[in-house]
Amino acid sequence: xKTNEFVLKFANVNGSGSASANALxxxxxxxxxxxxxPKNIFPSNIQGxxxxxxxxxxxxxxxxxxxxxxxxxxxxxQSWDDDIASIVPxxxxxYDNTFIQKFERSDITPIGVPLTRLVNKRFEIxxxxxxxxxxxxxxxxxxxxxxxxxxxxxxIARQFRGKDDAIxxxxxxxxxxxxxxxxxxxxxLDVRVExxxxxxDSIMIEGNAAAGLGCLFAGATVAAWYPITPSTSLAEAFERxxxxxxxxxxxxxxxxxxxxxEDELAAIGMAIGAGWNGARAFTATSGPGISLMGEFLGxxxxxxxPVVLFNIQRGGPxxxxxxxxxxxxxxxxxxxxxxxxxxxxxFPADPAECFEFAIEAFDLxxxxxxxxxxMSDLDIGMNDWTTRPLxxxxxxxFDRGKVLDAxxxxxxxxxxRYLDVDGDGIPYRTWxxxxxxxxxxxxxxxxxxxYAGYTEDGTVNVRVMERLxxxxxxxxxxxxxxxxxxxxxxxxxxxxxxxxxGAAIPxxxxxxxxxxxxxxxxxxxxxxxxxxxxxxxxAHEKVFVVEQNRDGQMRSLLINECDIDPARLVPILIFxxxxxxxxxxxxxxxxxxxxxxxxxxxxxx
Amino acid sequence: xxxxxxxxFHHPRLPRNSLGLTRRDYEGAMSTxxxxxxxxxxxxxxxxxxxxxxxxAHRLAKLSGIGCSSKTPTYFLSKSHGFNSVHGxxxxxxxxxNLANCDLTYVGVSGDGDTASIGLGQFAHAVRRxxxxxxxxxxxxxxxxxxxxxxxxxxxxxxxxxxQRNAFEAIDLAVxxxxxxxxxxxxxxxxxxxxxxPLIKAALTHKGFAFIDVxxxxxxxxxxxxxxxxxxxxxxxxxxxxxTDYVPYHETITASYAEGEVIDVTLHNQCRLRLRKLDSDxxxxxxxxxxxxxxxxxxxxxxxxxLLYLDTGDEDLxxxxxxxxxxxxxxDEDALRPSPEVLEAINVSLR
Lengths: 605, 351
Fold this sequence. Notes:
Chain A is of the alpha/beta class. In chain A, helix 16 links the parallel strand 19 (493-498) and strand 20 (519-524).
């Protein structure tokens, strides 16, 4: 019996409207109190190519991706063979038997429903026939999996509120599939959903929407962005929430500005201009955008201008796999731009943390007067996650950092924009327009002295560059600390992970324990690395660094920044563009342990 | 450049404006450009315009890119915040600054390399967006800091210092600005202060994107015989279409002109711009006619100067974005952050 522990997969044709029907199933399971992890695995295409949607339900709360499909909804002849092959023995395939009736496998149970025939009997318009076929198979699934049909009906009513015809038609399509199934098959299957309270007060949201909300609550007022998958929905979410919550009551005018820029260079330029002028500003992009923003990031680093950047990472290099996930911009973000630069990075692991780190990022950027890059990825950004509620301390005030107002300037004999008054490497800044006589300075990317004057004096430049290092060291104590796995046992082996990989780690640790491999785990949440990161590594003989790139970029960063013996850090690399599975992590680590070597493991191994 | 430092001493009887400030109060650091550089005259014209407009210098922000022209914001308005950004990208930085605080005046200074080559895209989009700023291009047709390469505004007929032929078509930034929807477009000449100062005053007062293409000869690399950006050539071939008299609102217009020779325009701050037609055929409200006129004259070897195009009706970027009239950078938690109840309601809606 696979009650509340299964993987359901939909194989569809892109552009057929399937994603919203599939999401409906995922949300209904969530509404029944069962933790779910939907993964939309889509092509870079508008219409025609294969697309998949996986829904993992796990009462145990293991929400990393899992391979081995228990029930395949096979709606795409293009990918039929591979789809059938991915079903576990004893699993099921739901298919449209209006067309396909042949099967090679005898160890799975075919469930043929004449979806096209049933739907075409009721609906005339071609687009309706296509869309309602999706809703009809949702009805089929409600019967097979025992999903509460009342929840589905309520969700449809909510989605189409005010459009009675649409509600009626959708409910009819749902019933067509459901009734046929109830009449024809023994329902439910042994793969099924049972109402539970395993989700507690969790919510279901995409990381990009959560980050957009975070920007709203962080007081961001200027957003400049250029459309790029998978970051687009972040800017769009910010816009959607602002249009609801940021309208001046008296005037109906907007207390925000969102500009769709002409390119990524302009997007970061606008954010920097706004940050320089005292607004909280951000941009959202992905790998190719980071490359384009390099020069400007160097300027913001050197001229010390706060700006927040969301990098929703995707498969690289170059245009790469635009609709697949990776963590392969670690080095390019940590040291973005020419010359000696270092940037503050935050690594959220789920949508709740996207929200919290968005708020954190604006405070950090202004406190440290530097770019802060929030390193999300496609998996977190564009998939719905079961995640803890969005939370912020209502008493928390914005930390605008060291900004002098007119009174502050009056109290000074002489203002020096880049003077290290407090010894923490962070100077005081002023916003344009503050004081008629004092506080004006010239921001520049050229070498400058403590009073912002141009200088080619090498000694002064060394002084400024060393202060910037001091400032970065101050950031080390301000960024979010790492968190540890519950089963930190003082083992000799350690595991470091970050970002979306975290979803697979608790399950992987359990699998490893079952194989008598005991591993302590730590999740990184920021760069610069707090001191305890190096302590954790030194406390273990070998530490596996699990990451989603080919070159072990985080491992390199740890070696470089913590002065660690490379032999101690074992790379575990998964970079096929799909969200990481616990099985894969376990296999690679077990292989590395078995070999007794530090060779590590990767996809190709 | 001169390396004698500027005296701090003020002559006690220097004229003062209504803020009690002298011209010296609007100056900046000593210029490091070549002696006789046209750009220094543009800086001086900006100083004069701000002085005459009684602008509090700290309420103005000056931005630039990279190049000789982009160095000049250091040489005027030392009490203003300045931002020397990256090559060709001043327009985006100015756009962001503009959105953050609607209460300041924004002046961007750029050059023909910074705007017409590396920055052409950002320039075009700042124009389209109608960013409320004065954008000055100090146009000398050459890359000075890298020692005299042709720039994209160099005319085809113009030859290099060593007789090199220029094979490529020139970009006329003023024509482009008109086509892209700038609401104030002018061309000046750094050698004609009487024309340039009123143009800058009007542009600073204009709400929306004001563009001034100032032909500003490079005395070192592009001031020779055969160059169409030399002092001599521009002086001989300048054709001014409109003289601009900026009239503060408290002054009455006294001079009288024959009908059809004068156009009075009321600017955003209630001041008036009196345009005296030097060519009765020219209509600064007609973008198509303006472009044709400029191109016709250009074909005859003339450089059309003066106020070329003016539209006081269009909204600026902040208007187009339906933004609040309060500066965004002045808004605090209470204005920007929804209540904890809203956050809770959002959580509930996601269950």
